Amino acid sequence: MTPQIDPRAGAAVKAADRAHVFHSWSAQDLIDPLAVAGAEGSYFWDYDGNRYLDFTSGLVFTNIGYQHPKVVAAIQEQAATLTTFAPAFAVEARSEAARLIAERTPGDLDKIFFTNGGADAVEHAVRMARIHTGRPKVLSAYRSYHGGTQQAVNITGDPRRWASDGAAAGVVHFWAPFLYRSRFYAETEQQECERALEHLETTIAFEGPGTIAAVVLETIPGTAGIMVPPRGYLAGVRDLCDKYGIVFVLDEVMAGFGRTGEWFAADLFEVTPDLMTFAKGVNSGYVPLGGVAVSGRIAETFGKRPYPGGLTYSGHPLACAAAVATINVMAQEGVVANAAVVGAQVIESGLRELAERHPSVGEVRGVGMFWALELVKNRESREPLVPYNAAGEANAPMAAFAAAAKAHGLWPFVNMNRTHVVPPCTITETEAKEGLAALDAALSVADEYTE
Ligand code: PLP
To answer: What PANTHER family does the record point to (predicted)?
Structure first.
């Protein structure tokens, strides 16, 4: 049941937002943010009584849904006991969060450096790699997202994000596998895997292996389109890193903590990086938290020598208490298994069935609760439904698609010509079916723009 809320209160919230909030990644005068009155589980609602099934998990972070009572209670209890404490002290919530995370990360990623979110986790992983190797360069993939701070935005393989910072010296991008848009070079996943590994090794050779500190990859690139890498790719990158003494960093900020139907996406591919970044799902985004899981070998570099980096709120007790409660909820309530089972049996099969009926769907790809539909004008040519970085009239087909989804009670994730299906990992079968029905209606609108 959506509580009755006064629409006038919503108007006041909206007016203050428009007057004073400077929004991320937006032209301030061209946006119209929804005033949100509340949220619970897989749903949120506005002040006019409209209720939406959230197929976005916020920005892919509410892996256990909104307002889980056990996590809310843990935050309240921590606030009552010890709201905050400086990072140099051992604090129960921090120690316990680190222990629970280290227990779940692959291999010997057993030391946890806490940050405030994902971008600063990437910044610190890269700093650790540079100091550990004594080398300057970082290699990362085009079609990736690693965060909005100076270094992380440069490591991000998307020119729309670089803005005035430009591409930083010392960051080199390469082409990771993406068969759907690589078909002139490869026809099978295996060929695409070989192409991508050969390209990476050539890039390493031309850049000079002795100059490269780290290869940074999202285990499954998320924001850029949920491109599940072919079997063998990440293991191949692991081998190349070992061969050339390069630190392998996997960014699990979006893919981690149950999203893929495993605790970490690295588990799907049976690879262990040297450093692994996380954020978002670690506590479902209830309080900002991120971190780097550090392998024994890299931790040793900083055994007798100080690590030159830190944050005032590193391992903030409120955020860590939320992480402890979230991880316990995930373990006790079978959230990871739910992502795998509802993901495969309802979401995946439902999306594949939609793709058969809707000509606007060019490709369905993903795993667990981590799916993307590539919307196209024409399935043969694979021309995207809207051009790269389209705005205004040029973006009309995606805008119409999104409006139709919302009219059917579904809040969709829309990124360029794609819709990502990334609901909470706790979503029920019934809710998932409800979302798929709304998606069906919205895709009929997208179909009108196909040729
Ligand atoms: N890395 C990845 C893979 C992400 O998806 C994101 C955010 O979407 C980030 C890093 C940045 O995280 P944050 O926005 O918490 O700084």
So the answer is: AMINOTRANSFERASE, AMINOTRANSFERASE CLASS-III
